[in-house]
Amino acid sequence: MSSQPGWTVTRNYKLPTAWLATFEHKADANTRTIGVNSEMDALPKIGHACGHNLIAISGVAVALAIKAVFEHFDLPGKISLLGTPAEEGGRGKVKLMEAGAYDGVAACLMSHPAPGPKNTVSLTSCLAMKHIEAEYTGRTAHAALSPWEGTNALDAAVLAYTNIAAMRQQMHPTWRVHGIFEGKNWAVNVIPEYAKYRLIVRAPTRAEQEVAMKKVLPSLEAAALSTGCEVKVDVYGDTLDLRQNRALGDDVANTFMARYGRVERELWGIKSASTDFGNVTYVISHQPYPDFPALHPGYAIPTVPDGGNHTPMFASAATTEDAHKATLDLAKALALTGVRVVKDDEFYAKVISTFEFDKEARKKGVIGV
Questions:
Q1: Nearest CA to 194 among 135, 257, 281, 271?
Q2: Which of 103, 153, 217, 263 is most enclosed, with most CB atoms within 10 A?
């Protein structure tokens, strides 16, 4: 962006690997600012298997298209393009929000690729998520000579796993609980004195995720009690569900359906995944800046069967010309909505009223679609 005329670029913005690019055209203190998110990340060994190469350029394309409209039609406007790192577990946007990086925008837009029918966009939500680490401590002993002298921490971790597995029959089908074991200095002939069970608990809304947590946490404690181990439980990484602003989504949908394809709200998308952009849609801005609505549509790129996000096949799919075309098609629709946020007072009033209504709906556990 530093090579593009008219943009002011700040490197290392609030975080060492974040950046901010801003543009203004004939703006004054009353001119609204449209926020755009260029998400940056990759996965170990499989690279852009979640399509962050596309997500990053999508934000750039949206911002450049809005700038072109402001200049061509000589419209007052402001753009804030934020490059955000560490979505894959690092909660980069949460850290940037806490540092005030999003303050002052009227709305924020981004998008995300996924497998799906060609020429379609999805406006589904994403799941709220929390991480749990349960560290079990027992006592080591020789597993053959004197196992009765030991207290098996791995048994405790395995029992916690099976407790949760047994609970799945009573779990809502939209919940997701998944995890792995970790240890240190394990040997097959030694009773493990330490084991860690790392897991993630997800549910469609923040309120429902809290219900799921209340069911999962006692299972971890019970495993320690029944094996005679000590347990330390750490809960962290509060990632919130994605609250799609209906008015913004409808506007993008109208443009996309008129020119490029169709829009769906339920059938496919990344609705069983989670994103730190969910926290952006819940954002509480720092005073004197108001809270703001946001939109995060998914869009389909061509993939092979079973070649979804976080697979090597999706990494390959994200490099194709068709994937880039799909990215730019949605970017054009998002850009038009971004222009309306800045210039159409009646439309923006509707966006804000929708946002305020959703604030109440989220308290009741209503999914933000």
A1: 135
A2: 153
For residue 250, the one-letter residue type is D
pLDDT reading at 270 higher than 60: no
In sequence order, the 6+-apart residues with CB closer than 8 A to the CB of 35 are 80, 81, 82, 102, 105, 106, 107, 108, 109, 292, 294
Q: Are 334 and 62 spatial neighbours (Cβ–Cβ below 8 Å)?
A: yes
pLDDT tier, 202 (very low <50, low <70, confident <90, very high otherwise): very high
Q: Is the model's pTM score more than 0.85?
A: yes
In the chain, where the domains are located: 8-126+241-363, 128-236
37: pLDDT strictly greater than 90? yes
What fold, for 128-236? Alpha-Beta Plaits (3.30.70)
The DSSP result for 78-118, as a single string, is EEEEEEE---SSS-HHHHHHHTTTTTT-SEEE--EEES-ST
In the beta sheet, which residues pair with residue 181? Answer: 197
- What does the pLDDT read at residue 89? 78
| Integer Cα distance of 30 and 167 in angstroms | 54
